[in-house]
């Protein structure tokens, strides 16, 4: 009987996580980022202490999102009308998630920056020695590849809607190309900020879903870097 109670407790806990993933958009984003970080650990020389820090940080973000969801659910159950105290509680819970997310970005920056610097330095040197028109060719390839993928999924039109987001793919491809050309951090930050604004506008206008925009961004970034690395442009 005790074992059954323990098993039921585990099942309820897992159901809580699954329900949070199913209903909360931010939870999906957190899990995707966590998955990418864990995959990156295989490709970079991450020590066991760095991995431990990453694991704790990821756990903190996911736990904060689950607690935030639980608080929102309880408040919605208790007060099915607007109440200023309920608003304060929801904002405070969301603030806790934001704090853990900012901490996660800082931890990731500290751990992966040095590991990415050597790779980025070699890649930037290759790009700087390439012909000016090669970057334009890369962007054309990204556009064509995006249209082909859209055709495979059969959603939307070549210029509007569908999986993945073409605007997001092209914007992040341009941002990636700029980051490979220049060594100025401010230029890199601004280029990715503009790409992020472009992606956000596609979601706000309801042309694309968040998943389509994220896939488009990753597609543009990875394809651009793949072309530069494989073909040694």
From TrEMBL:
<keyword id="KW-0460">Magnesium</keyword>
<keyword id="KW-0812">Transmembrane</keyword>
<keyword id="KW-0444">Lipid biosynthesis</keyword>
<feature type="domain" description="Phosphatidic acid phosphatase type 2/haloperoxidase">
    <location>
        <begin position="133"/>
        <end position="228"/>
    </location>
</feature>
<dbReference type="GO" id="GO:0016301">
    <property type="term" value="F:kinase activity"/>
</dbReference>
<keyword id="KW-0547">Nucleotide-binding</keyword>
<keyword id="KW-0808">Transferase</keyword>
<dbReference type="InterPro" id="IPR000829">
    <property type="entry name" value="DAGK"/>
</dbReference>
<keyword id="KW-0479">Metal-binding</keyword>
<feature type="transmembrane region" description="Helical">
    <location>
        <begin position="52"/>
        <end position="71"/>
    </location>
</feature>
<feature type="binding site">
    <location>
        <position position="65"/>
    </location>
    <ligand>
        <name>substrate</name>
    </ligand>
</feature>
<feature type="binding site">
    <location>
        <position position="72"/>
    </location>
    <ligand>
        <name>a divalent metal cation</name>
    </ligand>
</feature>
<keyword id="KW-1133">Transmembrane helix</keyword>
<feature type="active site" description="Proton acceptor">
    <location>
        <position position="65"/>
    </location>
</feature>
<keyword id="KW-0594">Phospholipid biosynthesis</keyword>
<feature type="binding site">
    <location>
        <position position="72"/>
    </location>
    <ligand>
        <name>ATP</name>
    </ligand>
</feature>
<dbReference type="GO" id="GO:0008654">
    <property type="term" value="P:phospholipid biosynthetic process"/>
</dbReference>
<feature type="transmembrane region" description="Helical">
    <location>
        <begin position="209"/>
        <end position="231"/>
    </location>
</feature>
<keyword id="KW-0067">ATP-binding</keyword>
<dbReference type="InterPro" id="IPR036945">
    <property type="entry name" value="DAGK_sf"/>
</dbReference>
<keyword id="KW-0472">Membrane</keyword>
<protein>
    <submittedName>
        <fullName>Diacylglycerol kinase/PAP2 family protein</fullName>
    </submittedName>
</protein>
<keyword id="KW-0443">Lipid metabolism</keyword>
<feature type="transmembrane region" description="Helical">
    <location>
        <begin position="133"/>
        <end position="153"/>
    </location>
</feature>
<dbReference type="Pfam" id="PF01569">
    <property type="entry name" value="PAP2"/>
</dbReference>
<dbReference type="GO" id="GO:0005524">
    <property type="term" value="F:ATP binding"/>
</dbReference>
<dbReference type="GO" id="GO:0005886">
    <property type="term" value="C:plasma membrane"/>
</dbReference>
<feature type="transmembrane region" description="Helical">
    <location>
        <begin position="92"/>
        <end position="113"/>
    </location>
</feature>
<dbReference type="InterPro" id="IPR036938">
    <property type="entry name" value="PAP2/HPO_sf"/>
</dbReference>
<feature type="binding site">
    <location>
        <position position="24"/>
    </location>
    <ligand>
        <name>a divalent metal cation</name>
    </ligand>
</feature>
<keyword id="KW-1003">Cell membrane</keyword>
<feature type="transmembrane region" description="Helical">
    <location>
        <begin position="29"/>
        <end position="46"/>
    </location>
</feature>
<dbReference type="GO" id="GO:0046872">
    <property type="term" value="F:metal ion binding"/>
</dbReference>
<feature type="binding site">
    <location>
        <position position="24"/>
    </location>
    <ligand>
        <name>ATP</name>
    </ligand>
</feature>
<dbReference type="InterPro" id="IPR000326">
    <property type="entry name" value="PAP2/HPO"/>
</dbReference>
<dbReference type="Pfam" id="PF01219">
    <property type="entry name" value="DAGK_prokar"/>
</dbReference>
<feature type="transmembrane region" description="Helical">
    <location>
        <begin position="174"/>
        <end position="197"/>
    </location>
</feature>
<keyword id="KW-0418">Kinase</keyword>
<comment type="similarity">
    <text>Belongs to the bacterial diacylglycerol kinase family.</text>
</comment>
<keyword id="KW-1208">Phospholipid metabolism</keyword>
């Amino acid at each position: 009987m005790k074992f059954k109670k323990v098993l039921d407790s585990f099942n309820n806990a897992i159901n809580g996580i699954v329900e949070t993933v199913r209903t909360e958009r931010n939870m999906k984003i957190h899990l995707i980022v966590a998955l990418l970080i864990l995959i990156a650990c295989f490709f970079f020389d991450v020590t066991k202490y760095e991995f431990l820090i990453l694991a704790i940080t990821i756990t903190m973000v996911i736990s904060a999102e689950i607690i935030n969801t639980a608080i929102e659910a309880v408040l919605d159950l208790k007060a099915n009308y607007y109440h200023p105290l309920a608003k304060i509680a929801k904002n405070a819970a969301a603030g806790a998630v934001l704090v853990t997310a900012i901490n996660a970005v800082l931890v990731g920056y500290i751990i992966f920056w040095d590991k990415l610097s050597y790779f980025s330095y070699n890649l930037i040197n290759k790009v700087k020695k390439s012909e000016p028109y090669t970057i334009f060719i890369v962007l054309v390839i990204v556009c064509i590849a995006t249209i082909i993928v859209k055709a495979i999924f059969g959603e939307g039109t070549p210029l509007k809607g569908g999986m993945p987001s073409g605007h997001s793919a092209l914007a992040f491809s341009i941002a990636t190309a700029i980051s490979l050309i220049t060594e100025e951090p401010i230029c890199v930050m601004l280029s990715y900020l503009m790409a992020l604004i472009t992606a956000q506008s596609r979601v706000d206008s309801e042309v694309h879903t968040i998943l389509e925009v994220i896939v488009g961004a990753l597609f543009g970034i990875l394809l651009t870097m793949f072309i530069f690395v494989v073909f040694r442009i």
